[in-house]
Inverse folding.
RNA sequence: GCGCCUGUAGCUCAAUUGGACAGAGCGUUGGCCUCCGGAGCCAAAGGUUCCCGGUUCAAAUCCGGGCAGGCGCACCA
């Protein structure tokens, strides 16, 4: 309904001779925040007032008739400084409910972003260790955003970028070598303990490596100095990366997160994309040599300093491959490249945008969502985490402790830009006070309600639009308004890249349902009225189930 | 020192991206099951939106200056 109102508003604006506002039409109208203002409110007059050089109330009064004629409003009035408040006949809401009912599982779908192609990259953790709680947040946000974008009509591809080559992989090899008791080898750079990866997984990687005959041979050769260190790294790191990636995929699968594609940095290397990118930058005079290294003039694109592309050693930096990777993505014809990064990478944005600009891509298409840090609270205490010491808490531990439903809901209970204190005690021991159960409970309640109705001989298939006419309580109408608003919550979350809006919406919606349920008996002797209420409950239940699905949380029929 | 993020009820967080009297959960206090699931509902109390200025019809939101916390400032990723 929101899209029809927005369209009607635009038509009325043109009819009245006002210039079309810059704002997206969908942002000009919303459900009224208070029912005394009617069903829908528009702030369009405020947007138009300046250009029209009229006061907002006057502008609103010129729009009122045109809008209400188009949407069949029962009442239109100007309020406050220039709000246009519209009230629709109840019949319109009954129709809206029936439409939602007929849509079934497609109830959240819109064509808001139809035709938009989005490449969404997230998690992209190095395969040098297991995923930790921070990656969990990134995964929860990225996966939910991907689903919301798709539900809003966009074409979405989710991608995991795998840094399976480079310095960090070599460090992993060194850490494993150390676990195997190889302290020194030909051509091996000495590392302090603090520069090594630590933790049980390093030891188990070492065990696995030993157990693989071809790998065990490499270890022996390394020990006997028959195999120089760089060759050892070349041969062993793909194996280690493969093993780590397997573990990462497994954790993600249990977290209900999947990707359309896994892009390996080694592929860029193998296909010569990195050299190609560097050459292009050189040709354009955007790369220069200094102190034995090759630098990218990122300062020309607003970065605070130039960045190294090729080290003094001749090895390209991570940034060089990232520039190549982003250039490749940009060449794919996507309307938006969304990256979800940990906030500690914020300083990285200008140079990547710079690389895109330098390589003929529009840097504005890169949309980076920075996810702030996660702190873990146990017994009210902050759990200290250190990757180097191997004392960080893994996503696996969270999953084992609270399960994917609670974990995903908690991760989405804050907007990405806020720091997250993940309270394990709240998530676990006070589980009955947990918002995720509050929402799931409502879904189970509807399921049980439907079963009860069936026992009484009430079958939803027999419901007809006329049965909805019995829905006259203000509580019923409010539930209709909010439940049928679901697709616009999803579209809003997708447009703003703010998937956290979905759980918040669900909590509010569920509250309305519980209130209504306590007030009004659903299944009564009045068959027509019961069917009307059951349709309302069915739509509500479907919205909850679809909403939970978008954030990767299950919707059980029994709890 | 510079950059990014954050600061809202006792606690954890929202607020349609500049909109109408700032809203929820937890916690506190007091109520509600003969009846479709009480993991629920109702009511009460709780606010200088960190502070000071500014911009305008309108500021929690934007700008400037402070204060506090987090994260960055590599030829690591």
């Amino acid at each position: 309904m929101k899209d029809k109102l927005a369209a009607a508003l635009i038509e009325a604006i043109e009819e009245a001779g006002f210039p079309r506002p810059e704002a997206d039409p969908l942002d000009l109208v919303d459900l009224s925040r208070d029912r005394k203002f009617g069903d829908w409110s528009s702030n369009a007059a405020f947007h138009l007032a300046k250009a029209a050089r009229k006061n907002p109330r006057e502008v609103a009064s010129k729009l009122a008739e045109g809008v209400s004629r188009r949407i069949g409003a029962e009442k239109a009035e100007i309020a406050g400084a220039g709000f246009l408040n519209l009230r629709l006949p109840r019949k319109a809401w009954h129709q809206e409910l029936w439409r939602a009912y007929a849509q079934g599982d497609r109830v959240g779908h819109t064509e808001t972003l139809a035709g938009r192609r989005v490449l969404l990259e997230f998690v992209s953790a190095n395969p040098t260790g297991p995923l930790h709680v921070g990656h969990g947040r990134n995964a929860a946000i990225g996966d939910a955003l991907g689903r919301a974008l798709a539900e809003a009509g966009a074409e979405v591809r989710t991608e995991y970028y795998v840094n399976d080559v480079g310095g960090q992989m070599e460090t992993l090899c060194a850490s494993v070598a150390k676990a195997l008791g190889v302290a020194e080898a030909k051509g091996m750079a000495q590392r302090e303990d603090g520069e090594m990866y630590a933790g049980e997984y390093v030891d188990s990687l070492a065990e696995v490596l030993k157990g693989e005959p071809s790998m065990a041979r490499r270890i022996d050769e390394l020990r006997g100095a028959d195999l120089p260190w760089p060759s050892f790294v070349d041969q062993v790191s793909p194996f280690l990366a493969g093993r780590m990636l397997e573990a990462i995929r497994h954790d993600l699968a249990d977290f209900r997160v999947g990707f359309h594609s896994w892009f390996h940095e080694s592929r860029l290397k193998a296909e010569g994309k990195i050299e190609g990118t560097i050459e292009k930058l050189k040709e354009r005079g955007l790369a220069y040599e200094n102190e034995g290294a090759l630098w990218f003039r990122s300062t020309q694109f607003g970065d605070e300093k130039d960045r190294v592309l090729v080290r003094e050693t001749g090895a390209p930096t991570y940034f060089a491959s990232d520039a190549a990777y982003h250039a490749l993505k940009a060449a794919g014809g996507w309307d938006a490249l969304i990256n979800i990064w940990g906030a500690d990478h914020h300083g990285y944005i200008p140079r990547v945008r710079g690389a895109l600009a330098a390589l003929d891509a529009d840097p504005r298409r890169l949309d980076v969502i920075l996810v702030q840090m996660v702190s873990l609270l146990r017994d009210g205490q902050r759990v200290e985490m250190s990757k180097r010491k191997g004392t960080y808490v893994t996503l696996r531990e969270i999953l084992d402790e609270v399960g994917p439903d609670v974990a995903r809901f908690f991760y989405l209970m804050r907007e990405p830009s806020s720091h997250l204190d993940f309270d394990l005690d709240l998530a676990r021991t006070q589980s009955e006070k947990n918002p995720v159960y509050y929402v799931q409970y409502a879904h189970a309640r509807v399921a049980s309600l439907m079963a009860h109705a069936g026992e009484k001989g009430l079958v939803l298939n027999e419901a007809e639009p006329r049965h909805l006419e019995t829905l006259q309580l203000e509580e019923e109408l409010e539930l209709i308004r909010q439940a049928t608003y679901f697709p616009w919550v999803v579209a809003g979350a997708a447009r703003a890249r703010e998937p956290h809006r979905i759980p918040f919406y669900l909590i509010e919606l569920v509250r309305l349902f519980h209130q209504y349920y306590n007030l009004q008996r659903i299944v009564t002797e009045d068959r027509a009225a019961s069917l009307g209420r059951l349709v309302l409950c069915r739509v509500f239940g479907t919205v909850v189930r679809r909403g939970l699905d978008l954030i990767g949380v299950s919707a059980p029929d029994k709890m």
In short: The two ends of chain A are 34 Å apart (CA to CA). Chain A has four domains: 2-88, 167-256, 271-371, 434-550. Residues 271-371 of chain A form one domain. The longest helix of chain A spans residues 229-254.
